[in-house]
TrEMBL record:
Domain of life: Bacteria
Keyword hit for Signal: yes
Name of the protein: Uncharacterized protein DUF4426
Organism: Azotobacter chroococcum
Keyword annotations of the record: Signal
InterPro entries, A to Z: DUF4426
Length: 139
């Protein structure tokens, strides 16, 4: 098994069921996303991905596929907390073999966060979606 496949398998296996990956479909693009507490990752996996683990540090992971193949994209997002405070997220593109994904970290308290995500790939249309995710600090 290749290194990227092992990394992605380890990333998936290290997350609890509540942080399950989700999918948003736009015409010929599939946008896979997951938001989770960085403490769910094993230290070596977090380090390999350049993620800082913390009790109140979340991670948003976005991957864009077209016909099952990874696509580079422009990804922008913002997160709004329960007080209505909005924070723009900046993403880091990670390429491992044929895999391309975008990672961003954000702080949180025990709360439900609202995410708004914009994705554009290959000069195509801007695709937007929103979702809510509840977060709890690590003990």
């Amino acid at each position: 098994m290749s290194r990227p496949a092992l990394f992605l398998l380890a990333l998936c296996l290290s997350l609890p069921a509540t942080a399950a990956e989700r999918l948003q479909k736009f015409a010929d693009l599939d946008v896979h996303y997951s938001a989770f507490n960085s403490g769910f990752l094993q230290p070596e996996i977090a380090s390999a991905a350049g993620i800082v683990r913390g009790k109140k540090q979340g991670v948003l992971n976005i991957a864009v596929l077209k016909a099952g193949k990874a696509q580079s994209a422009t990804v922008k997002a913002q997160v709004r907390n329960t007080l209505g405070q909005i924070r723009a997220l900046s993403f880091r593109e990670v390429r491992e073999g044929e895999a391309i994904y975008y990672l961003s970290q954000f702080p949180f308290d025990q709360e439900t966060l609202h995410f708004k995500v914009d994705v554009q790939s290959g000069g195509g249309p801007l695709n937007s979606f929103e979702f809510d995710q509840q977060f709890f600090p690590d003990e």
